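Protein: ATP-binding protein (AAA domain)
Species: Arcobacter porcinus
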Amino acid sequence: MSSLYSKLSVLKDDEDFFLNSRTNKTIKEIQKELNITIDEAMILSIIMSYQIQDTYSTSFDSLKKDFKLQSDEYLKYLNIAYKLEKKGFIALAEERRRGRSSRISPEFNVDDMIFNKLILGYDYLDDVDFSDIYSVVNIIAELISKKKYKKLTEFRLVSEANRVFDKLDIKEEFTKAILKYSIKEKLLLMYLIYEYIDGNSGEIASRICEIFFDDLSYRARYLESILKEELDIFKDKLVQLEERSGLFDSSTDIQLTPKAIALLLQSKDKKKKQEFKAQFTKHIKFNSLKKEIFLDERVARDINQLKDVCSSKNFNKIVKDLKKANLPSGIVSIFYGFAGTGKTASVYEIAKLTKRDVLQVDISSIQSKWVGESEKNTKAIFQEYYRACEILKSKPILLFNEADAIISKRLDVNDAVSQMNNTMQNILLEELENFDGIFMATTNLIDNMDDAFSRRFLNKIKFDRPTAKTREHIWKSKLPELEDKIYEKLSIYDLSGGQIENATRKYLINKILNQKEFDFDEILEYIKEEIEFKNNDDNSLKVGFLK
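Structure follows.
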């Protein structure tokens, strides 16, 4: 609206102001604009008139003197002023807060946003791009922040938020989805979106209620409705609860569901294509995977079958049929066996052939020294995966690499570390129970796997040490310039694919440094180093020169 400066500035000089206020067009305009009563608009108008001409704050007893009000009239108008103060349109001046003015003779100042809008003709919402959901989220977050730091009352928070929501583009999918909810549910969704964008998985439910509600009884009832999941946003699966499980924190977080995140991203994608940015995983694009792999016949057969399951031709139909049969639809697999036998490389091979990116998790990277953070990180991994499913062209593979620590048998809890590991395992078990996508894990220690994990893995592929024939193929791929009889000689040594690669790398480095031709004895020394190191590293494995 345009500035009311000139119209408001003269009101304090009108001796008949209170007599004519109910018919005053300016006051009626303010009443309509702010959705307040005519009496509230009248008192707000006269306070602004004083504030324009005098100082930042207005001593209310000036009205009594200037307009020669009787005591009962003055108290009537003062009562209306306090209603305005409770709603947040005006505030007690700092002097009043320090006790320098009485309850009968308070000093008020007009809220900055109201002053800017009515006096200066500036509305902060004019700067908001309502076609951009993130701009809307940001302005709602600013309003909530003002409420949090007591610069805005609950009434004004709701009032200003309604102004924002009324301006949303109803053609946007996300807008259509949220406008049907109550104002507090809309605010809650916006707040959680802001937290999500800011890198936080959620917020403590009781803290949100403390921010939103001034009245303790309303706060308690709303918290109860959240904890009992009675709100419509729970029924529509846009938010979910997550228990904090640290030793010193048993509170409950409320957070967006993958469905809400997907809805948000779909809405945004119509404006601009989203770029997936990994925070808790390592994003490996399928077209960057070039490495060739050689597997024994049995393992190759199992990997090829899993590759066929994950292919774009078959995957969606398989998932649809599993869901139709009320069976878990996630393709959850584990590769186990000796180190260096191609477990991780096989995941990459499947990704490369099915044109699916890999989101790789190294367990050590999500473990934190801070109580409760490791558990939050575990949950965040799956949220990140589902976000990637919405952004990337094909559903990616979630890879838990070297997952021994997190899938091993659960321990009796007697310290913080054990509790953390057990909680992480419980979260992983819960996620895998209802997993929607492609999950793969690798481990060297299958014997120590918790039975609960064993039940959740649909495919269990064992990787033995490669046969002589497979080792010959691996040597040939690493050193293609040699004669066939050399490969036959090298293949008799019982090495894994990883050990062959290490021996080859050392040989090639030395060859470059010393400008030497192929020397069988030299590469044999590197083979011995690999075998001796493995023998020292794990005497339980029977490895060495074959006789």
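Remarks: The first strand starts at residue 58 and ends at 59.
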